[in-house]
Write a structure and sequence with these properties.
Length: 261
């Protein structure tokens, strides 16, 4: 039986005297698309930052590919995990190709330079994300949706087996949201990339993921297939709000927050 790529046991995070994450137990399997959902302040971003090595004050156990996360150097961790954050700097003074090429540095020693294979991988990643035609454009001249795609291209070129994304569709219009999620779904299905994405849209999370981990108040409420989450009581336990449901033409349920005013 295949072992989990990621094992989380008893994960606690406390910042400035406040409990952010409490007793998180979670397994993530190779090639899985796991969505993280929950209300604002539930702990989704904090969990991603712990997994990415950005928060170091956590307690408990995180095991990546059979090795405790604390035993990885930053360079070694970057070779196995890539991360696309929710907030992006808009004044990055590099071209798209230059920015994507930077993601290859974890694979280089201090005395080596970028190789032809690195440049080829960067070009392929831009092509996969549909951004190849912008390779010579500065990142700070792009739209928000274009920048997000370039960020994903950089994470892809990094060559990691696990990609973490914090609200990858935040502040994007519907067309760009769909493009980002379609891309992540394709990378997951066709290339076997393991994806953990915090998503604000419940329907999008359930549409693209194999399992949905729901957090509330820093605790893991449930981790289930999407169909099990799209139930009135299951969603009420996460959001403390009533939900109504409609059916898509293909029979899939669509969750709608009910207006009870």
């Amino acid at each position: 039986m295949t072992a989990p790529l990621l094992q989380i046991r008893g994960l606690d995070l406390r910042i400035d005297g406040k409990d952010i994450l409490r007793g998180i137990d979670l397994d993530v399997w190779p090639g899985e698309f796991l969505a993280l959902v929950g209300p604002n302040g539930a702990g989704k971003t904090s969990l991603i930052k712990c997994l990415a090595g950005l928060h170091r004050a956590w307690r408990g156990e995180i095991v990546l590919a059979g090795r405790n996360l604390r035993r990885y150097s930053r360079r070694a961790l970057a070779c196995r995990i890539s991360c696309v954050s929710q907030t992006e700097e808009s004044d990055i003074p590099f071209t798209c190709l230059e920015f994507v090429l930077m993601s290859r540095y974890p694979h280089l020693s201090p005395f080596t330079t970028l190789r032809g294979a690195d440049r080829e991988l960067a070009a392929q990643s831009l092509a996969l994300t549909g951004m190849e035609h912008l390779r010579d454009r500065r990142l700070d001249t792009l739209s928000g949706g274009e920048r997000r795609m370039v960020m994903i291209a950089a994470a892809l070129a990094q060559g990691a087996e696990l990609m973490l994304l914090d609200e990858p569709t935040a502040f994007l219009d519907y067309q760009h949201q769909r493009q980002v999620l379609q891309l992540l779904g394709d990378l997951n299905r066709r290339r076997g990339l393991t994806v953990i994405a915090a998503l604000h849209d419940i329907n999008a999370a359930c549409r693209w993921s194999a399992r949905v981990a729901a957090l509330r108040g820093g605790r893991l409420v449930s981790c289930t297939p999407p169909a099990d989450l799209l139930q009135p009581e299951a969603l009420r336990a996460v959001y403390d709000a009533p939900f109504a449901f409609a059916r898509m033409p293909d029979g899939r349920p669509l969750a709608v927050v009910e207006d009870v005013s």
